[in-house]
Amino acid sequence: MINFFSGHDGTRLACRFSGDGAPLVCLPGGPMQASAYLGDLGGLAAQRRLVLPDLRGTGASAVPADTTTYRCDRLVDDVEALREHLGLDTLDLLAHSAGANLAALYAARHPQRVGRLALITPSVFATGLVITGEQRLAAARLRADEPWFGDAFAALEELVAGRVTPDAVRAIAPFRYGRWDEEARAHRAAEEGQRNGAAAALHTAEGAFDPAATRKALAALDVPVLLLAGEADPAAPPAVVAEYAALFPAAEFTVLPGGGHFPWLDDPARFRAALADFLG
Length: 280
What we know:
Blueprint: E1 2-6, E2 12-18, E3 23-27, E4 49-54, H1 72-86, E5 91-96, H2 99-109, E6 114-120, H3 133-141, H4 149-160, H5 166-171, H6 182-191, H7 197-203, H8 211-218, E7 225-230, H9 238-245, E8 251-256, H10 263-266, H11 268-279
Parallel strand pairs: 3-4, 3-5, 5-6, 6-7, 7-8
Antiparallel strand pairs: 1-2, 2-4
Helix pairs in contact: 1-2, 2-8, 3-4
């Protein structure tokens, strides 16, 4: 079911509901990818009512008149507008990948509005943490027995060295999934039509992040926090996600064995189990 609400500037925004129970707002990554790729988060909709917003300019949401509002810090006001639309005093937030940057900025600006915060294979731009090339390569080497490893690893080495090409980006796709099977290939193919590339280019524009201020705010965030990494995810290596967890007063940190960047696809049962106790 799609529901519409007004963003902070009147832009018509969409969100989809899935499942029953207490609401769980799920911020998509990409950046600027429609929330459809989250699906039902590996069956998590059986435990909570998932609220899946399409960020402005993606999915069923309208393109804003002012494209500078794609910047991550400016999207915080859209999350607050969604909270008001839902009539909730606080939000339980789950954020995936680049969505974690938006969740971190929201929590920093509106700490009193956050009930629980789950960051899944998170991007770290908002915090200023650094992912080294060797950390990415080390995670990728766990897949050395896969038949596609040679070409994909060579492409990843090119990207780590700063030689970014469309072919190299396409070639590393298997590393994003714990199993490079038919389901993963279909998921990857669908991404092409879900992401607003122009919006993504503006999402991290200058001024979007103030890492020092965000880290200070997260250090004072006194709510339950969970960070989940995929063991073999070069995009968010577990060592860096553990550093992220240490920024909070008391955060849980867990690693999904064999997991990639989309752990709810890699092992739905284990993903649900990791979230079940935390979300309640």
